[in-house]
Amino acid sequence: MTATILDGRALAQELRTATQSEIAHLSAQLGRTPGLAVVQVLGDAASTRYVRSIEKLCATVGAGFRLIALPPETTQAELEASIAALNADSEVDGILLQLPLPAHLNANAAIMEIDHRKDVDGVHPINAGLLAQGRTALVANTPAGGMELLRHYQIELRGKRAAVVGRSAIVGRPMAQLLIQADATVTVCHSRTPDLGAVLRECEIVCVAAGRPGLVTAEMIRPGAVVVDFGTNVGADGSLVGDVDFAASAEVAGAITPVPGGTGPMTNVMLMRNLVAAARNLHQL
Ligand SMILES: Nc1nc(=O)c2c([nH]1)NC[C@@H]1CN(c3ccc(C(=O)N[C@@H](CCC(=O)O)C(=O)O)cc3)C=[N+]21
User: What distance in angstroms lies between residue 231's CA and the mean position of ligand 1's atoms?
Assistant: First the structure.
């Protein structure tokens, strides 16, 4: 068996075009472009790479972009003051705090300071709580992008057994909530799950967000299962690899996301969609 490749690059391209025209329309209504502000505490190379890709995408779709780059020794008070300034800024519709932060800073406390209506990353507890209750919320981009891929390829979730490997606030937990909302029966696995393979082999849908290359092997995959790999690990040679052994798993799975070219490109385009949603909501459009 050879799996269908869930092509995130192609779908992201399609959604990018649609988002571009939405933003053109919204900009005409607002009399300005919807604006994204990214707060980055400098020091992490991967983070800088991600910020660049967001900046480029904003230019492509016609959104405003502002980078607040803070020095590595920034204090908690300074970080929170820069967030407060963005909350108060009427030209900023979305705020993204780049994670992870250096160890001396408290990410949870900083996130709490973000106006939840501008929380385009879906990380504020109000948005996470709304999602957990199955209500309308700004949803974290990475899991939202994974769901969009599943929807595009018309993968049935209702009544299916789904596993999520990883329980982070930004990927694993919201992905589990979205799958519950889609009427799947969801099991959340993590680093303390004793026999991961035994759980995954029961599941028709397997979503992996553990940040550990090679964690999921082909023998853990139920034949015909759909595999969504959220891992973006930079290998020793600088190449990007997921959490799933892709080559071997593609021989067993029914459908699988590649890395790169799967969930990664979807993440950024979902960020643009959240920016549109936040701007509309803020301005009652
Ligand atoms: N507050 C916050 N929110 C995030 O959503 C967030 C973050 N912090 N910190 C870093 C991670 C990482 N992340 C990626 C987004 C897109 C690709 C992506 O587009 N990947 C391409 C390859 C891009 C390349 O080669 O550089 C792909 O998989 O095909 C990857 C990784 C979002 N993150």
Answer: 10
